[in-house]
Design a protein that fits this description.
Strand content: 5-15%
Radius of gyration: 24 Å
Structural class: alpha+beta
Number of strands: 7
Oligomer: single chain
Mean pLDDT: 88
Bound molecules: iron/sulfur cluster, FE2/S2 (inorganic) cluster
């Protein structure tokens, strides 16, 4: 048994006051959870401390919140580990910081309004099967192998941790978001569904759809059930390309194709060429930009100017297609070889880059 300090972000709307921080000392075995700590504080110190929970076993998805800044389930986070993480993050004997989930309005203390940001978006993706024809007399029978692809997305418990951590959603609250798009893949990948192409067309053409994700990996880190929503979004994009959904006004499919072509041919990214190829496929001298491409390029100008201003594209060569920094020691050939291998073996290939932090 040890004493831990929880620093909780409180908000009691009926008081008319704004949010504030309050600390609670709790006595618990380190193997118990942050949720156990909050319930002890509620029981011993302040019955008005509001937290949503039910199963206390990482099954119901009710207790999503931020612990030390990371979106997670409070019942799945051991208080001893959270204490160590707080010390690593903030310095010796710092409290465990507990806040409501992000990207959602707060109703009271740690309880957020999941209707407006989560459930509305889940309904947006038509989360039920749309089979055609007469239903079978008994149940649908499918090959077990054909369901393997969607089992990961089926593991979702709708906790909202991924939504809370999504960086794109911070910038664009209308983004359909990681949880709803993972749910969309659950039906797109289901062999019983007969409207796969219509679903993909809808999600690709929505300006806040599958091409609004910036691959930040936050949802993968946050998800307590290993759903890896970003991977499901990438699967939706691949499927859209396979199904020929390449006329989206987001220019997403063309961008993906341009990127793939560049990795295949060069083994590295050439950002200036990527923009050109995305809007007007056909490298160098063969540019035939469509009306949409010209509009897209003009709309990209503020982004380009920001890149120059922030230093991302500070050197002139970086702005010229075909002129880009080379990777050292034949690394580009290695990347091309990896591409060829993946292509030959038709493997799904998700690349996780580690090692930028000193500790990794
Ligand atoms: S990877 Fe995409 S969906 Fe996931 S948190 Fe980042 S921007 Fe959001
Ligand atoms: S995908 Fe993971 S983090 Fe997102 S709602 Fe489902 S279980 Fe929670
Ligand atoms: S209380 Fe059910 S998931 Fe945490």
């Amino acid at each position: 048994m040890a004493t831990y300090t929880l620093k909780v972000r409180r908000y009691q709307p009926e008081s008319g006051e704004g949010p504030y921080w309050e600390e609670f000392d709790v006595d618990l075995d380190p193997s118990l959870s942050v949720l156990d700590g909050l319930l002890q504080a509620k029981d011993r110190d302040d019955g008005s401390l509001s937290v949503r929970c039910s199963c206390r076993a990482a099954i119901c998805g009710s207790c999503g919140m931020k612990v030390n800044g990371s979106s997670t389930l409070a019942c799945k986070t051991q208080i001893g580990e959270a204490h160590e993480a707080a010390n690593r993050r903030n310095g010796e004997s710092e409290p465990i910081v507990v806040e409501p989930m992000g990207n959602m309005p707060v109703i009271k203390d740690l309880i957020t309004d999941m209707e407006s940001t989560h459930w509305t978006k889940i309904r947006r993706v038509t989360p039920w099967l749309l089979p055609h024809g007469e239903p079978p007399e008994r149940e649908y029978v499918v090959e077990p192998e054909s369901m393997i692809d969607i089992t990961q997305s089926m593991a979702c418990i709708q906790c909202g941790a991924c939504v809370s951590s999504c960086l794109s959603m911070e910038a664009d609250p209308d983004f359909i978001g990681p949880a709803a798009l993972a749910k969309a893949y659950r039906f797109v990948g289901d062999p019983r569904d007969a409207e796969t192409k219509e679903r993909l067309h809808d999600l690709a053409h929505d300006p806040h759809g599958i091409y609004d994700c910036t691959h930040c990996f936050s949802c993968i880190d946050a998800c307590p059930k290993g759903v890896a929503p970003m991977d499901q979004i990438m699967r939706l994009r691949r499927k859209a390309a396979e199904e020929g959904v390449d006329d989206d006004p987001n220019n997403g499919a063309n961008h993906v194709n341009a990127f793939v072509k560049m990795i295949e041919k060069k083994g590295t990214n050439d950002e200036a060429l990527l923009i050109q190829e995305s809007y007007a496929p056909g490298i160098k001298g063969k540019l035939k930009p469509t009306k949409g491409a010209i509009k897209g390029l003009v709309e990209s100008l503020p982004t380009v100017l920001r890149a120059i201003k922030t230093g991302k594209a500070r050197s002139l060569p970086k702005l010229i297609p075909g002129v880009h920094p080379k990777l050292p020691d034949g690394a580009q050939d290695e990347v091309k070889a990896i591409y060829e291998h993946a292509e030959e073996h038709r493997e799904e290939f998700n690349l996780y880059i580690k090692g930028e932090e000193e500790t990794e």
